[in-house]
Amino acid sequence: MRVRAVITATAVAVLLTATLSACSADGSTSAKADAKAGGGQAHSGAATVTVTPHGVRAKAGKPVEVATHDGTLTSVTVTDAQGGGLTGTLSHDGRTWTSSRNAAPGATYTVKAATRTEDGTAGQANESVTTAAADKVNKVDWRPGSGTTVGVAQPISLVFDFPVRNKAAVEKQLEVTTSNSTEGSWGWMKDWSGKDRVDWRPKEYWQPGTKVSLAARLNGTDSGKSGGWFVRDYKLDFTIGARQVVKVDLDSKRLIMKRDGKTVRTFPVSGGTPGPETGSWRGTEVLMAKEGTIRMNSETVGLGDTYDETVDYSMRLTWSGTYAHAAPWNAAYFGRANKSHGCIGMSDADAKWLYEKARIGDPFEVLGAETKGEVAVNNGLGDWNVDWDQWRTMSALR
User: Fold this and answer.
1) How many CA atoms lie within 13 A of 119 on its CB side?
2) What average pLDDT does the segment 325-343 reach?
3) 11-131, what's its fold?
4) Who has greater pLDDT, 209 or 43?
5) Residue 123 or residue 6, greater confidence
6) 140-241, which class in CATH?
């Protein structure tokens, strides 16, 4: 099943730059704002400080900047109503502090800036900034589930509810870390559903035992036109299990399960009847879900009233309807002929065994002259059907 992370969005308000009140070291107000047109700076024995954005309904999606032009900043803190806040860095000359994260939509920040003038006078300035609330929220579904153990072919896959036109800005906020510095890259595509999707896959299958983390720091990121804003961060952690590879040879009509390079079991199967509608896809298909006993109706995959069956031990391999499952009605063809409507069928006993042993994320490597073509990259988790050099070009940051 897909897990939903609620990710919120923001309306865009006018960006304002305004003055923080300059205070003496004991906290008392020490000056009035300059009254000149276009002013907005406080003048006193302490340094003048400005913050951007400023006020109520300020624009989100950009860093908070605190600046002084007649002194230096000695410290800056930016906290929010939930007790969190924004960290940042001070410029070399000490005059500007910039947050490392964008201001989030619908947030109130308290800014405290300690200053010192050239003659050594210390001061403190305080300001409150409230960004405009979201008027459109983008959301994301992701795979795999956090805390899970998955197979060596499992990519990280994010599917967005609304269009993501600012793909580079979004991708910059997605950080993958692994316990063994695994090389990998993001790739953008249209999901089978038609929605925008981005996957991260390693150059090669994962090494067993790898610990993987995704930090999606999306809060305050604009999806672009018609997409809305993200207003929440989230984190995903999972572990890679044993190296299990399922090899399906539809020429010999046999399935081989290998674990850590050694053959665990081999048994006969029957794939799709050769033809553009009933043939099986070839290529690497990643096990997405174990769905157990399900009803398979040919009308749902555009094959009319060809079949309507209750099927046991169903393991989903593509969005277009390819499964590995028990098919006792086809027993006469196991190991002899491909006579299904595209799925990989096997006996009840073999299907039960495979269902119990296979893990979400295990690759099914399907080959055979009677297949109808290579499975598309977005048809399930078909990322491995694109070579590494081509996959890297699918990143928005290349």
Assistant:
1) 5
2) 96
3) Immunoglobulin-like (2.60.40)
4) 209
5) 123
6) mainly beta
